[in-house]
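Moderator note: this is an archived Q&A kept for reference. The question asked for a predicted structure of one protein chain; the sequence and the answer are reproduced below.
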Amino acid sequence: MNGAVLARERRELKMQQAREKQKSARGVENANRADPLLDSVSEAEKSRVLVASAQASAEFHKEAQNAPKGMRRVDMSIKDQRESLPVFAFRNRFLKAMEDNQILIVVGETGSGKTTQLTQYLAEAGYSRGGIIGCTQPRRVAAMSVAERVAQEVGCRVGDEVGYSVRFDDNTSRNTRIKYMTDGMLQREALLDPNMSNYNVIMLDEAHERTIATDVLFALLKKAATKRPDLKLIITSATLDASKFSDYFLGCPIFQIPGKTFEVEVLHTKEPEPDYLDSSLMTVMQIHLSEPSGDILVFLTGQEEIDTSCEVLYERMK
């Protein structure tokens, strides 16, 4: 199957929806009409079958919600969630390293908690007094969602002690002490204020992605750090190849955070797939039908593919 087939399925679905709408308007079809299969049985038996069907549907949804999933993080308190992250065991050592060094390279697996926790550890240690703890993200969605999560953990509204700044949306205030932003927004601030006078600590997160804005920030912040010995810099990376960052920042130490939140297994197709979209949908169906209950996350290139995939999956599941 290729993209043309998916498009045809989408058109057929829309045509079917239009036909159903016309039938409903004419009164030909009624959602509450009696089941013809029950016409030959007694009223009591009809009631029993309908009740059993409703109960089965309710039990299905209940089982999906209550199915054992191990220790789900959403079932834990915020305190327990924070302490379950791999980074928690290194909290004191991290703060000691920050005290002893102006610039620090932090290497940790994705999901170790470095993005949400390090800024909070710094704030709890007093680094937010008289200045902001800033953290950059390569994408605006990440900056906004991380700020919302950290605000939830801190116990404040987004825009108060914890806020974010992305293009066309600045959700901060004079009370903001932890600020998440895109690297492009911090770059603009650095060009207007080369000394970064509003910040006590700046963390460049996901530095291994090496966006143009991040690379420019390396130079701007390195220059600011030479002028301001009190300005602390943190460069975080999810890859072990952090020595080049250390070399650029005058041989600063590398702080390792081993461990990950969940075990990750990477599976590859045996042969290249000519149609990645259809292959993705087939894989989703296979997982849904053969694996225990849980969530499936599919990354696609745009809204049109997402809408098409949702409609096709909905139709195939009927």
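Archived answer notes: Residues 28-41, 56-74 have pLDDT under 50 and may be disordered.
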